[in-house]
Amino acid sequence: MALTKLKRRNRIKKRIRKIVTGTSERPRMCVFRSNKQIYVQLIDDLEGKTLLSATSNVKENSEKEGTKTDKASMLGKLIAEKALAVGITQVVFDRNGYLYHGRVKQLADAARKGGLKF
Question: How would CATH label the architecture of 5-114?
Answer without folding.
Answer: 2-Layer Sandwich (3.30)
